[in-house]
């Protein structure tokens, strides 16, 4: 929804809108490739921490994108923090999910995990996209308002995931 908003509503070119997401990809890659350097006793805690960082950055993006104006360098920082949070949460989560799987079934378990992640992504995009496009279609809501609403829904969902992760760590 952010890319659609940047291009359709704010008039960004496809290149400029795409470039806005580069900090997110870069910080996700850095966090995803270096999280194992953090002491092992903190690995489980990185998951909810990363999710909270992601939720906070999504809230910031809701505010930045929701005003309907050009977003400037603050959005690059927010997108970067979003990628960082996701990188800190995703890689340790995948590792923990597969760590206890016996080697003979590791390939199957990995396939099921990746398929589940992809299915969740598709369902999430379809659901949030439906909310976005339905909100844009109403006269009471502008595209900027719709972007803010879907980002805030994602904030709530991410905070629920963080709470579930904390509960899982305590077990």
Q: Helix/strand/pairing class, anyone?
A: mainly alpha
Shape type: globular
Largest sheet: none
Task: List low-pLDDT spans.
Answer: none
What is the string of helix and strand elements?
A: HHHHHHH
Task: Describe the protein's architecture and organization.
It is a single chain. With 171 residues, the chain is an all-alpha fold. Helices cover 81% and strands 0% of the residues. It is built from seven helices and no strands. Helix 3 (22-34) packs parallel to helix 5 (72-99), helix 4 packs antiparallel against helix 5 and helix 6 (106-137) packs antiparallel against helix 7. It is globular, with a radius of gyration of 17 Å. The mean pLDDT is 89.
Tell me briefly what this model is.
This protein has seven helices and no strands.
List keywords for this structure.
single chain; 171 residues; mainly alpha; 7 helices
List the helices and strands and how they pair.
Blueprint: H1 2-9, H2 14-19, H3 22-34, H4 43-66, H5 72-99, H6 106-137, H7 143-170
């Amino acid at each position: 929804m952010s890319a659609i908003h940047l291009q359709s509503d704010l008039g960004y070119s496809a290149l400029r809108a795409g470039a806005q997401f580069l900090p997110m990809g870069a910080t996700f890659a850095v966090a995803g490739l270096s999280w194992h350097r953090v002491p092992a006793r903190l690995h489980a805690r990185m998951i909810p921490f990363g999710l909270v960082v992601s939720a906070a950055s999504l809230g910031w993006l809701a505010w930045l994108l929701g005003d309907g104006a050009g977003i400037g360098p603050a959005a690059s920082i927010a997108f970067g923090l979003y990628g960082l949070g996701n990188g800190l949460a995703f890689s340790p989560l995948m590792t923990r999910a597969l760590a206890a799987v016996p080697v003979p079934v590791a390939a199957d378990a990995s396939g099921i995990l990746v398929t589940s992640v992809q299915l969740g992504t598709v369902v999430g995009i379809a659901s949030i996209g439906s909310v976005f496009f339905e909100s844009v279609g109403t006269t009471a809501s502008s595209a900027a308002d719709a972007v803010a609403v879907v980002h805030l829904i994602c904030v709530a969902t991410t905070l629920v995931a963080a709470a579930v992760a904390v509960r899982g760590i305590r077990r």
